[in-house]
Design brief:
The complex is a heterodimer of chains A (about 110) and B (about 120).
Chain A (H helix, E strand, L loop, with lengths): L3 E3 L4 E4 L4 E7 L4 E9 L6 E5 L5 E3 L2 E6 L4 E6 L8 E9 L5 E3 L3 E6 L1
Parallel strand pairs in A: 2-11
Antiparallel strand pairs in A: 1-3, 3-8, 4-5, 4-9, 6-7, 7-8, 9-10, 9-11
Chain B lengths: L3 E4 L2 E4 L5 E7 L5 E7 L6 E8 L2 E4 L7 E2 L9 E3 L8 E8 L10 E2 L3 E5 L1
Parallel strand pairs in B: 2-11
Antiparallel strand pairs in B: 1-3, 3-8, 4-5, 4-9, 5-6, 7-8, 9-10, 9-11
Classes of the chains: A mainly beta (about 110), B mainly beta (about 120).
Chain lengths: ~110, ~120
């Protein structure tokens, strides 16, 4: 079983739509959680960290459910510039290694 | 913007050649990583380092080797390149935090093609 699993999509949504991505992780000892954004043929860049209490950054909201071992990302009022692949990343305390999901592809359509 | 650099950005090379992919960061980060990513696939950790003279293998088996003689520099070497090594190689760094880890900053990647 993979450490991190994501629905690869693609998600094709109109501008202004709200879209949600989920991600599940297999190791209950995981300690840190992130959403990264990766544009085509570019390096991943941090979108936001995910905290136990949930956190919001503008149009983006991240939630963590430790009991069910999943993380979510909600994007409100989608913009064309939101089109990218969104990577779920989970860190373990031991060895401080990070595990990446395959990413969820989002295309925002005019 | 992250201050982490990789060279070359693109490399096309013949089978059997020895190659070194360079990675440098100017943020003073103790932890550095090498990932391999094929198109449409997830990143796989192949090497990481906690600091000078510390190197560990990641989950993905790799025929490459790394060294960490200086904090800012983490080169990856393939002694004899093969077509199966064709991939994108991403270098990253982060602070040496406690708990589960801190944000990683990625370099722009090296796209390697072995003919």
């Amino acid at each position: 079983r993979k450490e991190v699993e994501q629905d690869p999509g693609p998600f094709n949504v109109p501008e202004g739509a709200t879209v949600a991505f989920n991600c599940t992780y297999s190791n209950s000892a995981s300690q840190s959680f992130f959403w990264y954004r990766q544009d085509c043929r570019k390096e991943p860049k941090l979108l936001m960290s995910v905290y136990s209490s949930g956190n919001e950054d503008g149009r983006f909201t991240a939630q963590l459910n430790r009991a069910s071992q999943y993380i979510s990302l909600l994007i409100r009022d989608s913009k064309l510039s939101d089109s990218a692949t969104y990577l779920c990343v989970v860190g373990k305390n031991t060895g401080n290694q990070f595990y990446f999901g395959t990413g969820t592809s989002l295309t925002v359509i005019p | 913007e992250a201050d982490i650099y990789q060279t070359p950005r693109y490399l096309v090379i013949g089978t059997g050649k020895k190659i070194t992919l360079e990675c440098s960061q100017t943020m003073g980060h103790d932890k550095m990583y090498w990932y391999q990513q094929d198109p449409g696939m997830e990143l796989h950790l192949i090497h990481y380092s906690y600091g000078v003279n510390s190197t560990e293998k990641g989950d993905l088996s790799s025929e490459s080797t790394v060294s960490r003689i200086r904090t800012e520099h983490f080169p990856l070497t393939l002694e004899s390149a093969r077509p199966s090594h064709t991939s994108q190689y991403l270098c990253a760094s982060s602070e040496l935090g406690t708990g589960g880890g801190n944000e990683q900053f990625f370099g722009p990647g090296t796209r390697l093609t072995v003919l």
